[in-house]
Amino acid sequence: MTKGLIFDIQRFSIHDGPGIRTTVFLKGCPLRCAWCHNPESMAREPEISFILAKCVGCGACFKACTRDGHVMLDGRHEVQRGNCVRCGECAASCPALALEVVGRATTVSAVLEEVLRDKPFYETSGGGLTISGGEPMAQFAFTRALLRAAKAAGLHTCLETSGFGQQKRFLELLPLVDLFLWDYKETDPERHAQFTGVPADSILANLHALDAAGAAIILRCPVVPGFNARDDHFAGIARTANELRNVREIHIEPYHPLGEGKRERLALATTLVEASFPDDAVVADWVAKVQAGTNVKTGKA
Can you tell me the distance from the alpha carbon of 268 to that of 13, in angstroms, rounded to the nearest whole number? Predict the structure, then answer.
């Protein structure tokens, strides 16, 4: 029985493909994007999230943990992550829900059972299942098995991906994916490697291979002021779309800083990003710059 590690199942999603959808978020990602808004997706194992503001000081987690994972330092509750084995006993004992295990192992059948609860909504709206992450290709066997089960159940399927992975695996999934939601992060190769941690060449090669094989694609382009909100990048988005035959749309996705709070809860290092929500006029200008170079439908996601 194929098992995978997920960190969320989001029902009634309207931004991860057409119609009303259920989005399954898998843990594990080989990229380390400076602006990542789902930092809880990066690690391939469960993690303990701790929100200090919710802690009521009851001491239940101190009693539940047998490895000194919780201590008081200068009157402040601290999680000693070097001692933590992520068993989840502390989270299970926390009455204030200040502690949470992020990531749970599950089966394809269990996920599909939850997804199928909303099948009538998919049928009336043209929606279905979207697999996201993290990077779904990092759990290829589970992703493939879930897509197969979804297609057998008659669901429309989307795969949201960074494009980083083995090309033969992407092509293997082609018959199971109705629409690829392809993150296009940075045009400049050096900047791509610097701010995502991986090279761009294999990602572009995978994109062109899928396009040549007839895959339906939406380019999803996160735009982050101070990183890739540049005219040459907007021109690069349009140029890439023009090189491909099967790009349906281009989505410009403005940066939001919601990932910073998640990083604090997981004790992850803060990012280099110092940006805020761009206003609508700025986003409209980004969209217009991309639209000027391509006939593909372009808009804010």
Answer: 27
95 contacts: CB under 8 Å, gap ≥ 6: 56, 58, 60
Note the helical H segments in the chain.
60-64, 89-93, 108-115, 119-125, 140-152, 167-173, 189-196, 201-212, 231-243, 259-266, 280-291
Residue 217 tokens, joined: 């694609």
DSSP string, 194-231: HHHSS-SHHHHHHHHHHHHTT--EEEEEEE-TTTT-SH
DSSP bridge pairs for 252: 221, 300
Instruction: Provide the pLDDT for residue 263.
Output: 84
Q: Which amino acid is at 17?
A: G
Q: Which residue reads 């992060």 in tokens?
A: 185
Tens of pLDDT, residues 184-205: 999 999 999 999 999 999 999 9
How does DSSP classify residue 101? E
Rounded CA gap, 263 and 283, in Å?
Answer: 26
Would you report the helix, strand and coil content of the chain in percent, each value rounded to 5?
A: 40, 25, 40
Give the separation between CA 130 and CA 181, rounded to whole angstroms.
9
Average pLDDT on 57-78 reads 93
Q: How far apart are CA 178 and CA 174, in angstroms?
A: 8
Rounded distance between C-alpha atoms, residue 6 and residue 139, angstroms: 10
Give the separation between CA 237 and CA 234, rounded to whole angstroms: 5
Residue of 237, 232, 235, 282 lying closest to 255 (CA atoms): 282
How far apart CA 135 and CA 32 sit, in angstroms, is 11
**Helix H or strand E encompassing 76:** strand 76-79
Half-sphere exposure of 249 (CA within 13 A, CB side): 15
